[in-house]
């Protein structure tokens, strides 16, 4: 059995953090654009739940893509860990800020975040030269 310092996990952590940075930057920009659409456009607030999942998916794909591209190998791992970290931060924010507990929606969000990040990571590894 490999020790923690001999495994690949410590070497992948900087890639996960850079993927998280990209994911949260994209999420912030997309949320800002959505707020502008609500303010200036005719979009109704009833469409927000669908828009929320689209924003999260785009952010996770981009964050996983960057994590996979920077890692150079095992993009599914770097992207998946980015998705899990993203999901943990979002869930922790919901718990601390809005008193939202764990339910099936948050479990499915975590599974979807891992899969979207892993897909982005696999794509990102393929673009590395």
From TrEMBL:
Signal sequence region: none
Keywords: Membrane, Transmembrane, Transmembrane helix
InterPro entries xref list: DUF3792_TM (IPR023804)
TM region(s), chain numbering: 20-41, 76-98, 104-125
NCBIfam families reported in the protein's UniProt record: TIGR04086_membr
Name by which UniProt lists this protein: TIGR04086 family membrane protein
Source species: Paenibacillus aurantius
High-level lineage: Bacteria, Bacillati, Bacillota, Bacilli, Bacillales
């Amino acid at each position: 059995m490999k020790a923690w310092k001999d495994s690949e996990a410590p070497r992948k952590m900087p890639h996960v953090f850079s993927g998280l940075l990209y994911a949260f930057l994209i999420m912030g920009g997309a949320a800002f654009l959505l707020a502008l659409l609500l303010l200036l456009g005719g979009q109704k607030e009833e469409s927000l739940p669908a828009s929320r999942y689209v924003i999260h998916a785009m952010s996770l794909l981009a964050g996983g893509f960057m994590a996979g591209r920077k890692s150079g190998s095992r993009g599914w791992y770097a992207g998946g860990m980015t998705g899990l970290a993203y999901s943990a931060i979002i869930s922790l924010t919901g718990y601390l800020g809005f008193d939202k507990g764990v339910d099936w929606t948050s479990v499915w969000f975590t599974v979807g975040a891992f899969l979207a990040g892993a897909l982005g990571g696999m794509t990102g590894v393929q673009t590395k030269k």
